[in-house]
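Preliminary data (for renewal application), magnesium ion complex.
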Amino acid sequence: MKIIAARLIVCSPDRNFVTLKIETDEGIYGLGDATLNGRELAVAAYLEEHVIPCLIGRDPSRIEDTWQYLYRGAYWRRGPVTMCAIAAVDVALWDIKGKALGTPVYNLLGGKSRDGVLVYAHANGSNIEEAVDSVQKHVEMGYLAVRAQSGVPNVASSYGVPKAGKSYEPAERGLPSESLWSTERYLNFAPKLFERLRSEVGEDLHLLHDVHHRLTPIEAARLGKELEPFHLFWLEDPTPAENPDAFRLIREHTLIPIATGEVFNSFWDAHDLIRNQWIDYLRLTIVHGGGITALKKTADFAAVYQVRTGFHGATDLSPITMAAALHFNLAIHNFGIQEHMCHTALTDEVFPHSYSFDAGYMSVTDAPGLGVDIDEELAARYPYQRAYLPIARKLDGTLTDW
Ligand code: CS2
Ligand code: MG
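Predicted structure:
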């Protein structure tokens, strides 16, 4: 089998997606997600100008060799754009291999280790009342795990809370919006949110919370300690993770489980955090971390230290990544949980897929490969529109982590 063509499908059915389609001389094609929220065309250009020319004529079954060729052959290593591009090729090749062998990708990763993939939903509200109501709505929908985010009193816009009447989509078309943030107000508020949530939903529901990189290590330690009575499933991105030592400091002060890594793009970003057991869940995911090949190596390393996966799964990761993640999550032993932020009906129409949600878990069918496709004609009706993630500033105007 030979690769005879590879091309990008860039579309924006509600938000931007970049999809790589690799075609072979036996009529089988594979799909890979190449979406990097807010920097989509950088990855598209990297693939178009520097990767696709090298793919033509290659044997698509040589997945590991192709991964090494694209990683080591670039000379300049790592980074979100490079690893997202490599991921798109890698996932498309796993899709092709599954289709060529007539088997779902999870079977190529060791077969099922579980019958379904535990997922968590996004609940949010502009205040505690709305957040409680949203969590309860997701419990009624069958979720066993729910992330709760709330507006903070006297803070204009908090992370994870949609604008009035809209579903939550952080990327905004046009130039980046700017919002004001107050750590002090947030730190005084967050424990009240979870005290109320626990009293409303009881002990069994897994509650998660995303700090979104906004605290210093000692502030994160304070928050972790104050949230301990409400036994969260995890506290996510408590502090920026460029300095892994920051997580040592948090670990010294609190038992709250820690998750981080959605902004990582390589095993090496997580290496110290894993081997020192400074985190409990790794969020590094397939589309941003170099693909299935890279994540398998990383997850296997994490398993040795009893660190589990908790893949990022926001709407800016396409249904192709969701499908790949579900196959991966079904197979590996040290699976933790999968984020499930539902795509819109239109996005699901552009990307028909075989995965489904039921009673707190997601599963895939035994369709060969990943079990996902792209409706190119429909995608073409929704052309790319530049969009950015927001910028955050402290009340005094200092730029801070959004
Ligand atoms: C968030 C994301 O889902 C999450 O945990 O951190 O919504 C993140 O803000 C976006 O994926 C950024 O593109
Ligand atoms: Mg997050």
